[in-house]
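Input sequence (384 aa), recorded before submission:
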Amino acid sequence: MRPLRLFMLLSLAPVLSVSAQDKQEPYLSIKLEMKRAIERGNHYLKSQQDEEGFWREAKYPAYTALALTAAMRCPSYQKADYIEKGYQWLSQQQKDDGGIYGKGLGTYNTATSIVALVAADDPSYHPAILKARRFLINQQTDWDNKGETDNKYDGGIGYGGSYQHSDLSNTYLSIEALKLSRHIAQDDDSGKQPELNWEAAIDFISRTQNLQETNDLPNTGNDGSFNYFPGNSKAGMRTNADGTKVLRGYGSMSYAALLSMIYAELDENDVRVTAVKDWLSKNFTVKENPGLATKEDPSLGQQGLYYYYHAMAKGLAAANIDQLTLANGKEIDWRNELSNALLSTQLPDGSWVNKNSRWWENDPVLVTAYAVLALEQIYDSIPN
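Predicted structure, token format:
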């Protein structure tokens, strides 16, 4: 196997206005630090592998998929037995329906596993990838089977099973997996492959945005940020000056939406794209997952912090953004800001962990994988 070094499609590559060498200059030192941190993080993950080949919990293949993707994207990648063993285990978890999961959370585990299998760049995994793609596509919801997005959850993808609604997180992860594996579906000689209803997916994503021009659901704000699913935000509600209550969007879902809209090929000048970019610029921070903290409990901003970092790195790299303009007008280099935040929080054994346990982020295997993948995305997005 050899690593697939292109995280983003070639069509998303930036057109450089200055030489790549000039743009690389500020990163020469920090690239060495990032490379070392990535190697240490992957070494920690290697030490956590079970003898059977999986990571953390066998019933959740996503742990294994994240660790394998981190290993394959390492700048100093070398073929290793533990990686081969991990892929052997992961490929054996595929069900008859095409999903790659153990017990529950079929969408999340399958989407994450597709990304890992694509990263292997091994044609022997193509049949499994195509089966898994079909599973994800079949998870796209059309609640009344009318082929229209007349239900607020239509067009999105949820966890599956007993979860009776779509959500932006599972939709974003599915869109990423389908986009990164699309070349396999197009090039495979086994016949025409099904495709996601991208227009319906955009409709669903739009219904999670606080943007009244494109979302007429109740309690919709107008700042361009994104929520977890239509009518629901993990950040709760806020009261406007006129007494109306609207949903509070937050950082991790806003970056997830940005990446989703880019992969869905929504025009970069579309109001939904420009609005979320504006919100992300004005609310940029690496100290917390913005939008979640409250005056009563500032610690809520630490929820999902490393998921946020990972989504940020992917979203801004895909958007070809180098500098962000903050609310005070100051311009910052997000790559330096994010990489320094990650480098400063790596523990002596090479791991990362979030003291806030929500969304499983007190698990060092999960959080280390998020952190390593974020650093690898930053490293890979620096112009060569």
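Checked by second reader. The longest strand covers residues 237-239.
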